[in-house]
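From the shared-data thread, chain only:
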Amino acid sequence: MLRSYIRRVPLGGLAMDPLTEPEVVNRVLNALDQGRGGWIVTPNVDILRQVAADPGLRAQLNEASLVVADGAPLVWAARLAGQALPARVAGSDLIWSLSRGLARSGGSIFVLGGTPGAPDGAHRAAAVLAEACPGLRVAGAHCPPFGFDRDPALLHAVCAEVVKSRPQMVYVGIGFPRQEHLIGRLRAALPGTWFLGCGAAINFVAGDVQRARPVLQKAGLEWLDRLAREPRRLARRYLREDAPFAAALLARSLHHRLTHRPAHRA
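Structure, as tokens:
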């Protein structure tokens, strides 16, 4: 199994892989060269909060091939606890770096997701990636209607479209945890394909949603930019649910660091 030789970092119930973005890309490309597929999960504070409350979801995500921290508070918490997560690895960045890596060998992608109100968003995102990454092949793109995964016929049709295209990489951006459940279904039919649950990344690439400025990304404040743009939708999640969880996570990590110091020899 891909993760067997990686010393993982436990954090909030998940086992994180201490990898940089280039290392993630290299592992994916090497696995594809050997005909092996996989699944990348990029948890942030909101995902970790949901995972902490749902043992079944936690078990599912711990089966992923790679789990990397998409959220500066997760990196900070790991470091406070004396663990080693080298950097944030965001799904919104991986969609670009993985595409560039695949393009070098003429690899193929399928873009699945986007905003249902902009049904051509997946196609536009795929076109943007193909133009920016010469050599990248677009196996397909589809923005399914909202709630499609609750309709057995629609769900079957969407899955059949992806499976028929036989892509090397599938970007799934329909929100957590729906995208993870869908990936679990698709992986069984495409064992040689890699999957990335990428949330809003498809909307960013298509230009339907503007991503935060790089200075905010580096400072770990990308969530603040999104809150300012969509306060009604995100205020409860970010301020009443995620912020207290993040504070508690940091406090637990610091407590672990202080209470697990190695004993000094006399």
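The chain has a mean pLDDT of 90.
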